[in-house]
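INTERNAL TRANSFER SHEET
From: sequence group
To: structure group
Subject: Claudin

Please process the attached sequence and return the structure record in the designated field. Keep the field labels unchanged so the import script can parse them.
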Amino acid sequence: MASGGLQLLGFVLAFLGWIGIIISTAMPQWKMASYAGDNIVTAQALYEGLWMSCAMQSTGQIQCKVYDSLLKLEGSLQATRALMVAAILLGLVGVFVAVTGMKCMKCMEDDQVKKMRMAVFGGVIFIISGLAALVATSWYGNRVARAFYDPFTPVNTRFEFGSALFIGWAASSLAILGGSFLCCSCPRRETSYPPTRGYPKNASSTGKDYV
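Return from structure group:
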């Protein structure tokens, strides 16, 4: 039952990737800036995420503030939000669809063809979800890198990649890999050959007396 093991492995990887996408979306550490200047006394580091910005104090306490207005945000940040939320919703749908098509589940046992199609369809949804998260994190990371290397950006306001980006990249890769395994877990159809026709046996010749 090699296909069943590959199917289970694909679902576990895709599910872990989906959980990682949720964690990455909720984390505020999408980009971070460290300060070492004398003019900064209370704050050691600033973090910005998709939903809030946080400041870590010298005492280790972190204070976060949710963005006030959606209309005041940059269009790229709103698009990143939309892609990550879409990836989460697609992953949720992929979980239900893939579970329905798992061989270890008893639902749809009467029609194995539809059951396998459900597993493959769930894998496709996981791949789309991972691609959406990968596009969102890569796009956001590209903006952070371009602003960091921009000579017009002040040195004390430059941001670097946050841990949420790395989690998002890893999670999207897991979702794509797991979805690919789900798509490949469908067993190949065995080629049915027509039954071979046996050659008729020659009737045993009766012995004849020759004169």
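Handover comment: The first strand starts at residue 31 and ends at 34. The radius of gyration is 29 Å.
Transfer complete.
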